[in-house]
Amino acid sequence: MIRIASDIGGTFTDVVLDADGRLTTVKVLSTPARPELGLLEGIARVLAAAGIDAARVDQQIHGTTLATNALIERRGARTAQITTRGFRDILEMAHENRFDQYDLGIDRAPPLIPRHLRFEIDERVAADGAVLRELDMAGLDAIVAALDTEGVESVAISLIHAYANPAHERTLRDRLAALRPALAISLSSDVSPEIREYERFATTCANAYVQPLMAGYLTALAGELARRGFDCPLFLVTSSGDLTDLATATAFPVRLVESGPAGGAVLAADIAHAAGLDEVLAFDMGGTTAKLCLIDDGKPQATRSFEVGRVHHHMKGSGFPVRIPAIELVEIGSGGGSIARLDPLGRLLVGPQSAGSVPGPVCYRRGGTQPTITDADLTLGRIDPSRFSGGIALDRDGAVAAIVRDVGTGLGLDADLAAFAIDEIVDENMASAARIHAIESGKDVSARTMIAFGGAAPLHAARVADKLGIDRVLIPANAGVGSAVGFLASNLAFEQVRSLFMPLAAFDAGRINAALDDMAATARALLHGDDDQALVETRLAFMRYAGQGHEINIALPVHPLASSDAATLRQAFEARYALLFGQTLPHAEVEALTWSVRVERIDRHPQPAAPPTARAAETAGPSRVAVFDPNLGTRADFALLRREALAPGFAADGPALITESQTTTVVPSAFSVAMLADGALLLTRKPRGAGT
């Protein structure tokens, strides 16, 4: 098998070619105006480097932030919503709360669809699916005329309780498609068939908003790849870290939000599983953002909802919800291109604004004038200018001048201390985000092993680990393109979720089995799977005590449920409830609210890592370089090593810089480093007080 995995980020586009386990990697600057240009350049470079013709490639895997950026930057299609009369304002009412109750000046971001493009139609379905009022198709003619007048390109049809009975939504879709075939149409009963109308409406509108953009991009990309000689399937990475085909990605582009970061979490989970690491903190820092994810027992934390486009100090509730299966990540605006500046009060701020690839950091010589984290790392001596990602020749003098001008002068610091202050701010921001995320999850971050990847993470991992009290940091091989490598570990999968209210006291096994079997059939059809042995199915029930507002998931057997399983489900629910909350409510009624079926095609299995090779330390004769060491507060004499020149069994004490073509690993004086059998670098904290 020859496969190509590509990840378009805000600053760099990473491309990895896998030829039967031999990886060739390339990192090029992203092209925000036309993201496919940077991608195609990277693909051409990686083919040339590997000496492989396009026709020999068996599979392409692609992750992109295009959908995410379109939602955040409001660059999607002109979109309208059709909803049940009386529910026009759900998108603005949201949860009818204040996400920051002490800020009198808060203002929510406006919904993706303005009020004059939200249309009502007469119909009503009850929560159990019963039709209370038939659909009045006569009202559609006036809506179609308004769509034409407003130049609408995409429509979100989201009727109340359509998850329980989608008939009215489908009737509207069929009629609208017949009248206006060019319109993109999204149904809430397809995109997010779950209760809680605000989340369902918001997710459907987000899908409709990005669908024309993503459909055009993906169709054009597939056509250009075919024109260049590729004759292989193109798969897209979803927010859950799974792969989906082109048709499914085009129909449900909202599932591609956070696809790049999900690939990094898959990589870290794969490494954790192979190495037998039970508790891991995945740390992914690229050119624009940093991402953190908790991984337990070889699996990343999962969620069924998250927020996009938080506008108020990144506070929960200040964005809009997207309800899809996803890997739970914390993402903050701290990347190599994050801009450093002083606010009017003279305080140093770093990010979330980023210089990106255009114009980029000052040291890129591409027109950037504001100092960034990359400029600070270069100033401190942490980056070898001759070995930077993408072959960019860095301008250290320009970086130093910008940092002194915009930060040092105002704070009364020289270039080194000003650059160190920039890095300290961003490192503390990332450590703080990890602490809060762990606390919210009820977990201890200090006992974990950190797995760091992305172009900037190895530069900052040891310092962030130091702040978190973490003693072990693992830098995998090809860390600079980690998310793209993670794509290669993903499997083709699809998850169906559907709300079907069912008190256990009135458990109807036949009704539940019919729903689960229908969801499984839909997922299997999307995977085009005819080999049942290759498909693994996972079924879950989301349950709660009657009257509660949130559910917890319980694993279900794949075989059909029987009436007697009601007692089994209650026992499983109460065991998990007690584990999470320390007690149960013995006489309270238990109810299931939502059900999910995930079908996955298993194409590969992680192999356990071999133990490190016993070998003497190899430290003779490296070159030296003066680098600012945060543990010492001054510059120190660092060994300068090339990663490709090291072999498994290599070991050395810090301080050291280990350079490679796409990133640099900083080993401060408080850590030692060893290369494992699989080529990963393991940084281990020395006993307290040693090496300082």
CATH C-level name of the largest domain: Alpha Beta
Low-confidence stretches: 605-621
Overall pLDDT = 89
Structural class: alpha+beta
Question: How many structural domains does the protein architecture include?
Answer: 5
CATH fold name of the largest domain: Rossmann fold
| Silhouette | globular
Strand percentage: 25-35%
Task: Tell me the span between the first and last alpha carbons.
Answer: 49 Å
Radius of gyration: 26 Å
Helix fraction bin: 25-40%
Number of helices: 16
Please state the second-level CATH architecture of the largest domain. 3-Layer(aba) Sandwich
Oligomer: single chain
User: How would a crystallographer describe the biggest sheet?
Assistant: 9 strands, mixed
What's the total number of strands? 35
List keywords for this structure.
six-stranded mixed β-sheet, single chain, Nucleotidyltransferase, domain 5, globular, nine-stranded mixed β-sheet, 692 residues, Rossmann fold, 16 helices, alpha+beta
